[in-house]
Specification:
mainly beta, 170 residues
Length: 170
């Protein structure tokens, strides 16, 4: 006789009262033990955060003025679409900083800096120790031709040869 026993246990915990609109992206920084949330929300737990917030295990807090692009209905115009950490700083993508176009921003300990404006959509950010990968629907970034995928080493943008690409992303 063969007997299989399955035990599933899930303990869900509330992270406060929630966001005023959708959360699109979560990023957990295990080094700092902080959870970042990005999306189309202006507030989390009544705190104005403008599309990006951090949870320290006890409470939500803003990161400076946030992504700082809101529309007339009280939501982020085009919300944060991607979050990662690269070379010790947080990076976000979305229609940020009132540029009216997709941008990538870097958290500089007190404010967000725009790294690059992208003529298209950024859908993912991924990092290794030495490279930030950017994917989406764009044909250039940082002044170079790039077919929907590129890397940045902290100084220089590079394209990735997609002529043999057989996938949907990273």
């Amino acid at each position: 006789m063969i007997s299989t026993t399955f035990c599933f246990s899930q303990d869900w915990l509330s992270l406060g009262q929630g966001a005023s609109r959708q959360v699109n992206e979560l990023y957990y920084d295990s080094t700092s033990n902080v959870l970042l949330a990005g999306g189309g929300f202006l507030e989390v737990d009544g705190i104005i955060v403008n599309c990006i917030a951090q949870w320290d295990g006890q409470q939500w807090d803003s990161l400076g003025a946030g992504a700082n692009f809101t529309n007339a209905v009280g939501a982020c115009g085009n919300p944060v679409t991607a979050i990662t950490k690269f070379q010790g700083s947080y990076f976000i993508a979305g229609m940020l900083f009132a540029s009216g176009r997709y941008s990538i921003g870097r958290w500089g300990s007190a404010s967000w800096d725009s790294i690059v404006v992208v003529p298209g959509i950024v859908s993912n950010l991924y990092s290794t120790d030495s490279l930030l990968y950017v994917t989406g629907t764009f044909d250039s970034i940082g002044g170079i031709a790039a077919s929907g995928i590129a890397t940045w080493n902290g100084t220089t943008w590079s394209s990735i040869d997609t002529t043999r690409w057989e996938g949907d992303g990273i």
